[in-house]
Amino acid sequence: MRAKELIKGAGMRFRVARPSPAMVVAVIALFVALGGTSVAAIDFARNAGAVDGKSAVYSGASTRQSAGKLVATNQRGSERGQIPGKFLAGVARASGFGQAVPVNDNAVGAPLPISSARGFGTLTLSCNDDNPRAGAENPGMAVSFVNQSGDAVNIVAQTSAGDVANGAIANGTQTSIGIRGTTTFSFRVERRGENLRVDGVIRQDGLGTPAANCVIYGTSTTVR
Hints:
By secondary structure, this protein is mainly beta. It contains 2 helices and 14 strands; from the N terminus they run E-E-H-E-H-E-E-E-E-E-E-E-E-E-E-E. Strand 6 and strand 7 (121-129) form a beta hairpin.
């Protein structure tokens, strides 16, 4: 091709100059820049809402799904705006319990679930009438921890008077504390390095009346 070409048309002649090397370089640079912008836009859309390239999983995700990712806080409920405890390692997690159980005159009460701890078991209360005289109820209580961990656990049960039980119990069995009057109690449970501590108060209300109650309240704390 010649350095310059003649173009004829409509009785006119004009010359078109071959692009200079500088112009060629500038055009190539423009297309490269536009292509880089497109790639950046696609990458931004792909990672929108991510931090350090990691997208957050919702608060109901499993620990397996959330491994190596960010975790969103709870959207609703009493823990709205907070990170679920299952995603926090080595942090104590506490919950409270409290209940007043009516005494059935001259009867032994069935165990009632009071508080449960995932991976450990359930705290139960049996509320009995220890007075055989009708209409004059005397609350007698048995507080038990039922092992539902699927494994043996180490456990210490105490009242304000001292140790009641200390040892290991198999899955599906329980340790109980018999209580009369008002006192404090605790259960300390260990399973494979994870720990549960239950601290509570037990109280007789309406002693000697036909409307007595067994009152129990306290806290349950787990450290995983």
